[in-house]
Amino acid sequence: MKIFYRIILLVFLIIITPIHSNSAEKIEYLKTDWSFKGLFGKFDRSSLQRGYQVYTEVCSSCHSMKYLSYRNLAEKGGPEFSLEQAKAIAASFEVKDGPNADGEMFTRPGRLSDKFVMPYDNVKAAQAANGGAYPPDMSVLVKARGGGVDYIYSLLQGYEDPPTGVTLDDGVYYNKYMYGNKIKMANQLSDGLIEYSDGTNATVEQMSKDVTTFLMWAAEPHLEARHRMGFKAIIYLIILTVLVYFSMKKIWSRIETEV
Amino acid sequence: MSDHEYTPKSKVGKWFNDRLPLLTLANHLTDYPTPKNLNYWWTFGGILTFCLLTQIVTGLVLAMHYIAHADMAFDSVEHIMRDVNYGWLIRYIHANGASMFFLAVYIHIFRSLFYGSYKAPREVIWIIGIIIYLLMMAAAFMGYVLPWGQMSFWGATVITNLFSAIPLVGEGIVTWLWGGYSVDNPTLTRFFTLHYLIPFLILGLVVLHIWALHVPGNNNPVGIDIKKPSKDTVPFHPYIVIKDGFALLMFMIVFAFFVFYTPNILGHADNYIEADPLVTPAHIVPEWYLLPFYAILRSVPDKLLGVVAMLSAILILAVLPWLDTSKIRSAVFRPLYRQFYWILVVDVLILGYVGAMPAEGLYLLIARIATAYYFLHFLVILPVLGLKEKTLPIPLSITEPVLGGSPNLAAAKNKESFKN
After folding, report:
1. Is A168 strand, coil or helix?
2. Is the Cβ of A239 closer than 8 Å to some Cβ of chain B?
3. Which of A10, A18, A255, B27 is the most exposed place for a label (fewest CB within 10 A)?
4. ipTM of the predicted structure?
5. Do B82 and A6 lie within an 8 Å CB cutoff?
6. How far apart are the first and last CA of chain A?
7. How many other CB atoms are found less than 10 A from the CB of residue A120?
8. d(CA B284, CA B267)
9. pTM
C-alpha cells in the first residue's frame, strides 16, 4: 500500500506545479467564506439573488453575460427565482427580434428563453464607450482569472489612491489587486449604493461577496450537481475498491506468494 | 505464443474457431502466463488502456456537440458546459482525462526505466510505446487548441511556429500547417480532424504494443527471464485481472476527485478567455505534461537547435535499448544505476518546474543545467555504467527467495516497491 502513498505524493507534486506557475506575482487576496467551496459546497440562494441584483443594477450597464439565459435564473442549483419572477425579470428587458414578415427588426419584451440582453451591440461599441477598454463578458469571468473568486472579490474592494510616484492617465484607476495595478474600470461600489430587496445592508463587502457568488454560479451553473454526484461517485468507488481488495486477497491466497 | 493447443468444447465454438480463431485468442488472453511477482507499478498498462477508452468515448460525445469553427468553438464548449445534459461531466472527464492519461504514461515509462523493461528482447514493445507517447502528445496538444481560448490560440501559434526553424522551407511549412498566414479557422478544423484521428491510431498501436508484449511475456521486478508457464507465473485471469482492477479503482478515485472537485486546476485560467489574435497572454505555457520538453526547448538560445534538442530529448528514448549497455535489467540489482535513476527523475521534475517559469535569470540557468544533465544521463552515464557497474548477483527464478534463497534475494524483494 506504500506505493499508493507515493502515487498520491506524485499527484500532489503535479498539482502544485501549475499552482506555482500561476502565482508568480502573487499578492494576498482578501479572504471570505464561500459557501460553495468544499465537498458539499452549495450556493447561498439569497446571496445569488442579491448578486443578480448587483449585476443588473451596477455591472450590466457595461458587462455582458452572453452565455446566460433568463430561464437559468429559475433553474435548480442557481438563484432559484420562481418561474413567475424569472418571467417578470425577462419581460423587463427589451429584446431585439426579427426580421418580421415585413423584413423589419422589432423589439419585444424578453422571454425566459432569451439570452441576457447585452449592454452594447458589439465589441467595438463597447470599446468606444469605455475609453478603448472592452469590459469583459462576465459569463465565465471567475474561471478566466488566476485567483478566481478571491481575485474578483478582492478587486472590487481594492481601489486605492495611487502611491506617490505613480501617475495615472485619464480614465485609469489604481487597484492593488489588478495585474500591473492599473485598471480602466472606476470603483463601482460604495456603501448603500443599491437597496437590497431583502433588506440586507448593502455594504461594499456584502455587495462584492454577493456579486462574486453570482459570477461563480454563472461560470459553473452545475456546481451543486457536480458536488453531489462527486460525493456519490467517490463513495461508490471506495466501497467497490474495498470489495475488490478483499476478493483479490482471496484469489491470491490460492498461491503461495502474497500480493 | 501459447504453448498448448486450444479446442473449444462446444461444436458451434469449434466450427467458428476453425474459421476465425477468436476463441483461441480469448483463451490465450485469459491463460497468458504472467510473472507472479509483478508489483503495482505494472498495473499502469491496464490503467492506460482505460484512459484511452475513456478519452475515446467521452471524445465521441463531445464531438457530437462541439463546433469546429473559429467563431463558434468557444461558444459550443460553453453550450456543452451549460445546456447539454451532463455535458459538464463529459467535458471535465475528457479534459482531466488527458492529464490522468499522461500521469499514468509517465509512471509507466519510468517503471520501464527502473526495471529495464526496454532491454532485449522487448525493444520493439518499447519503440512502439515511444511512438504512442509521441502521438499522445500530438493529440493532447491539438485537443487543447479546440476550445479556442487564449492558451489554445497562442499555444498553437508558438508550437506550430517551431517548424519555421527548419532552414529554407520552414516558413512555407508553417503556412502549409496553418492553412493560411496565421492560426485561424483552417488550422482549427484540421486540428479537430487530426485530434479525432490520432486516438484510433493510438488504439491500433496499443494492440501492437500488447501483441509485442505477449511474444516475450512481461518483464518483472527481478528482471530475469522466466520459464512460462511455470511456478513463477500465474494465469492472467483471474490473478492479474483482479489486481489491475483494484489498482484501476484506486486510480479512478484520484481521477474522480479531479473531475468533481477541482476540474479546472490542471488547466490555465486564460483558456476561459476566447481566443484573440490581437492580445498576447503574459505567459504562454503548455499543459503540465509538456513542460519538461518546453524547458528544454527554451534552454537553447538558438531556435533551430532548441527544436532539435526538444525532439532529441524524446527520440533519444527510442534508442535507449542500445544506449544502455548493462546485461542486468532490473535496477534492483544495479546499485549505482538506481541512484542515477532517481537523479533523472528529479531532473525531469525540475525541468517541468522551470518549464512553467519565465525563461530568464536563475530559471534559465537551472533549465540549462537540467537539460545538459538529461542528455548526459542517456548519452554518457548509461553506456558507461553498463560496462563499469558492479551488479548484485541475480536469482535464478522468482520462486527461489520464497523457497528460502540467499539473503540477497530477500533484500531484492524488499526493494520491489522502489525502496532504497
Report:
1. coil
2. no
3. A255
4. 0.90
5. no
6. 10
7. 18
8. 12
9. 0.91
